[in-house]
């Protein structure tokens, strides 16, 4: 399980910047240790546990990139057209043969280059005159063919440990002939919602109750990150019950993730519960929405294992935003991958905005093309941290750095698509 020290998060009562929080996490958090070999298709989203060197060259042999005629460049006239007799035909998958030069060989895309040939004319660019081909001038040596190993030579590093497998990296591994790759085991995450007012979808809704959306948000996001999830349901606003459940969940999990109950009210018991059974090390981040985010370490009964703890605030939009900016990078490190900041794109703000300096704010926006064709961001009309439709009706978040106090329409702002955050 995660070997976190409580000092790792130690911080006074001030707001902690997201970068400082993540630096602390990245500095002291060892990735999960176990590895397994998985079939290539099952590797999507998993983290490579070892470097992969190319066992074969890619492409494995010198071949034509087009359907056409293979020639020896030295046979081409220095100026004007060249006439060569056509001799031989090499379809893909056939043996290449060799020429002594002075001929053009009919060849097809992916077919091996005949020994002695080094250049290919596309069939659209030539004229046939009986058994003779007329080649235009101007093609450069080596045109339209692919040398062995031009993509990756045998023995070169193809993928490095820590790389998250994707359809692109799966394509590369398959092209190298691999059937399996070695990946780190999945991060085991226990998920709770908290709150006396929260009930699971599928149960009747009583007065003053609402359906649990956060446990679904968290799990849907965790699934995309390849976590092994245990859904532990909803905990009441009761310190002893929360403490007991957290302690029990610490065995067999790397991370315990909760929502709700981390704010300052006397009905917010998560913080105290963590302190009762483990250590709570920082809990206020300079981020909006989502300032109350608790982190800590919870030992399992017996003390041999421990789990990291992250308590997200209860408001559904805060859950989404803090997951993206805190849980996601944390899980990335725990899973053995390199944390990467999602790349924000510049867009034009189509809204005015005021904020307090000192916190990083994320504004929910929809994108549209302005009259001049430039992409612009339109702020959702409702910005309450509980308004879930403000997420479903927008495309992403505009990130306003800590020092910013106002945004005027027309200014360039940093846009983070939801696609990058989940
Ligand atoms: N006096 C203060 N009050 C609040 C502060 C503050 O600093 N001082 N912070 C506000 C902010 S910001 C947020 S965010 C919330 C976070 O508080 P908690 O983490 O303690 O969250 P709860 O009070 O439990 O719930 C907040 C809100 O979210 C709803 N909720 C909770 N869980 C779920 C769930 N699983 N699915 C759907 N909705 C959920 C809950 O009913 C509340 O409406 O505190 C502010 N208050
Ligand atoms: O975390 Mo609260 O949602 O900032 O509004």
From TrEMBL:
<dbReference type="InterPro" id="IPR008284">
    <property type="entry name" value="MoCF_biosynth_CS"/>
</dbReference>
<dbReference type="Pfam" id="PF03454">
    <property type="entry name" value="MoeA_C"/>
</dbReference>
<dbReference type="InterPro" id="IPR005111">
    <property type="entry name" value="MoeA_C_domain_IV"/>
</dbReference>
<keyword id="KW-0500">Molybdenum</keyword>
<dbReference type="InterPro" id="IPR005110">
    <property type="entry name" value="MoeA_linker/N"/>
</dbReference>
<dbReference type="InterPro" id="IPR001453">
    <property type="entry name" value="MoaB/Mog_dom"/>
</dbReference>
<dbReference type="GO" id="GO:0006777">
    <property type="term" value="P:Mo-molybdopterin cofactor biosynthetic process"/>
</dbReference>
<keyword id="KW-0501">Molybdenum cofactor biosynthesis</keyword>
<dbReference type="GO" id="GO:0046872">
    <property type="term" value="F:metal ion binding"/>
</dbReference>
<dbReference type="InterPro" id="IPR036425">
    <property type="entry name" value="MoaB/Mog-like_dom_sf"/>
</dbReference>
<dbReference type="Pfam" id="PF03453">
    <property type="entry name" value="MoeA_N"/>
</dbReference>
<keyword id="KW-0460">Magnesium</keyword>
<comment type="similarity">
    <text>Belongs to the MoeA family.</text>
</comment>
<dbReference type="InterPro" id="IPR038987">
    <property type="entry name" value="MoeA-like"/>
</dbReference>
<keyword id="KW-0808">Transferase</keyword>
<dbReference type="Pfam" id="PF00994">
    <property type="entry name" value="MoCF_biosynth"/>
</dbReference>
<comment type="function">
    <text>Catalyzes the insertion of molybdate into adenylated molybdopterin with the concomitant release of AMP.</text>
</comment>
<feature type="domain" description="MoaB/Mog">
    <location>
        <begin position="190"/>
        <end position="333"/>
    </location>
</feature>
<dbReference type="GO" id="GO:0061599">
    <property type="term" value="F:molybdopterin molybdotransferase activity"/>
</dbReference>
<dbReference type="GO" id="GO:0005829">
    <property type="term" value="C:cytosol"/>
</dbReference>
<dbReference type="InterPro" id="IPR036135">
    <property type="entry name" value="MoeA_linker/N_sf"/>
</dbReference>
<comment type="pathway">
    <text>Cofactor biosynthesis; molybdopterin biosynthesis.</text>
</comment>
<protein>
    <recommendedName>
        <fullName>Molybdopterin molybdenumtransferase</fullName>
        <ecNumber>2.10.1.1</ecNumber>
    </recommendedName>
</protein>
<keyword id="KW-0479">Metal-binding</keyword>
<dbReference type="InterPro" id="IPR036688">
    <property type="entry name" value="MoeA_C_domain_IV_sf"/>
</dbReference>
């Amino acid at each position: 399980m995660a070997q976190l020290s409580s000092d790792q998060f130690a911080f006074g009562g001030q707001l902690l910047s997201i970068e400082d929080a993540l630096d602390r996490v990245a500095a002291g958090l060892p990735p999960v240790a176990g590895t397994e070999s998985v079939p290539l298709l099952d590797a999507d989203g998993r983290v490579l546990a070892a470097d992969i060197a190319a066992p074969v060259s890619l492409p494995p042999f010198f071949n034509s990139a087009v359907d056409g005629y293979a020639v020896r460049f030295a046979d081409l006239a220095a100026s004007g057209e060249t006439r060569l007799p056509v001799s031989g035909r090499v379809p893909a998958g056939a043996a290449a043969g060799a020429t002594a030069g002075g001929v053009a060989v009919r060849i097809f895309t992916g077919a091996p280059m005949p020994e002695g040939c080094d250049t290919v004319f596309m069939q659209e660019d030539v004229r046939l005159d009986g058994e003779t081909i007329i080649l235009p001038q101007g093609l450069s040596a080596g045109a339209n063919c692919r040398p062995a190993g031009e993509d990756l030579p045998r023995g070169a590093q193809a993928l490095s440990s820590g790389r998250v497998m994707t359809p692109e990296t799966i394509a590369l591994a398959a092209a190298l002939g691999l059937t399996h790759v070695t990946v780190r085991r999945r991060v085991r995450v226990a998920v709770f919602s908290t709150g006396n007012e929260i009930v699971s979808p599928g149960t009747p809704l009583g007065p003053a109750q609402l359906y649990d959306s956060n446990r679904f948000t968290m799990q849907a996001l965790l699934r995309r990150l390849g976590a092994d999830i245990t859904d532990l349901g909803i905990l009441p606003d009761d310190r002893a019950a929360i403490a007991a459940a957290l302690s029990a969940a610490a065995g067999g999990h790397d991370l315990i993730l909760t929502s709700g109950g981390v704010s300052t009210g006397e009905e917010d018991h998560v913080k105290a519960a963590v302190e009762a059974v483990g250590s709570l090390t920082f809990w206020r981040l300079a981020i909006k929405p989502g300032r109350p985010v608790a982190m800590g370490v919870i030992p399992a009964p017996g003390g041999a294992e421990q789990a990291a703890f992250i308590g997200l605030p209860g408001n559904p939009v805060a859950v989404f935003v803090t997951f993206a900016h805190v849980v996601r990078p944390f899980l990335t490190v725990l899973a053995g991958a390199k944390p990467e900041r999602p790349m924000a794109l510049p867009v034009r703000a189509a809204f005015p905005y005021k904020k307090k300096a000192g916190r990083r704010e994320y504004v929910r926006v929809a994108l549209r093309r302005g009259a001049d064709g430039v992409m612009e961001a339109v702020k959702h009309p409702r910005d309450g941290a509980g308004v879930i439709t403000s997420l479903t009706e927008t495309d992403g978040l505009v990130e306003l750095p800590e020092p910013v106090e106002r945004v005027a329409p027309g200014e360039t702002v940093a846009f983070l698509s939801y696609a990058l955050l989940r």
